[in-house]
Amino acid sequence: MDFGEQGARLTYGGYLQLERLLTSQRLESDPAAHDELLFITIHQVYELWFQQLLHEATAARDAMLDETPGADRLWWAQHLLQRMHVVERVLVQQVDVLETMTPQDFLQFRQTLAPASGFQSVQFRELEFLSGAKDPSFVERFRGLTEVERERLRRRLAEPTLWDAFLRVLARRGLPVGSDAEVTDSVRRAAHDRGGYAEVWALAEALLQHDELAAAWRARHVVMVERMIGTKTGTGGSSGADYLRSRLELRYYPLLWELRSHL
Ligand code: HEM
Ligand SMILES: N[C@@H](CC(=O)c1ccccc1NC=O)C(=O)O
């Protein structure tokens, strides 16, 4: 039986670049703190999922923007947004794994991390920008960004968001999008004529779900932070949990939330 022994061809480890992947966990603590491997692994897994989410969100946006006559790809945008929701639920649940670390075990290596912090996650900020929450001040406030990273953020600031693409979908369906009031009226019309505007309403709900899951992650993250460091200031130089609480109100699609009060 030579199953699995065909040699000299593509291998599992080669295909997945495991040599690079599994040697990319370098501890800062010396002597090594037991829990630092978990801390690095969790963050690397987050960044891999962020990369996947950016891949899906970019394609969903492009599918909504596609104006090629006869090439209606809204079903594809919808499919990708649903996948994003499932990944986003994983991101929220994954916090449980990190919470198996006690605060005193975290403190064994926490001081070696400063001034690094999740605040500097470029992909996290790209996701916020692409979703619709563009804030150029983040690009300026970022310390220690490489030129490539800075350029990636600038490009995300310049390109259309998921919300911009959704507005194009409304306009193509003959629904006015000239002002916030018009957009709200248009989505309300879709909400009350779901037979006539099935895809529009489904996309609005999928965007709202994406927004809700991002809010759930922020809420989960801040509670973990309180559990780990209480009211201490962050390694990134912010006030810590207070700063993170100020971010809880962020919504990507405020009009979709306001609509709820006027349906
Ligand atoms: C022990 C666990 C963690 C603690 C104590 C913690 C703490 C903090 C603190 C205090 C901040 C505010 C910035 C600062 O001054 O440092 C922050 C921001 C942030 N953290 Fe964490 N964090 C933890 C785990 C994670 C994980 C696993 C991720 C996943 C990638 C993450 C992603 C982020 C992001 C994206 C921000 C920026 C949020 C924003 O600006 O809205 N953090 N974290
Ligand atoms: N900001 C955290 C440290 C931390 O969690 C962290 C440090 C370096 C890289 C990523 C991190 N994760 C989230 O902020 C703290 O103040 O304890």
TrEMBL record:
Protein name: Tryptophan 2,3-dioxygenase
InterPro entries named among the record's database cross-references: Trp/Indoleamine_2_3_dOase-like (IPR037217), Trp_2_3_dOase (IPR004981)
A GO molecular-function descriptor: metal ion binding
PANTHER family: TRYPTOPHAN 2,3-DIOXYGENASE
Domain of life, per lineage: Bacteria
Subunit (UniProt): Homotetramer.
Taxonomic lineage from the root: Bacteria, Bacillati, Actinomycetota, Actinomycetes, Propionibacteriales
Pathway: Amino-acid degradation; L-tryptophan degradation via kynurenine pathway; L-kynurenine from L-tryptophan: step 1/2
Class in the EC hierarchy, top level: oxidoreductase
Residues that bind heme: 221
Family: Belongs to the tryptophan 2,3-dioxygenase family.
Gene Ontology BP, a term: L-tryptophan catabolic process to acetyl-CoA
EC annotation from Swiss-Prot or TrEMBL: 1.13.11.11
Residue sites binding substrate per the record: 39-43, 110, 235
Required co-factors: heme
Organism of derivation: Nocardioides mesophilus
Gene (name only): kynA
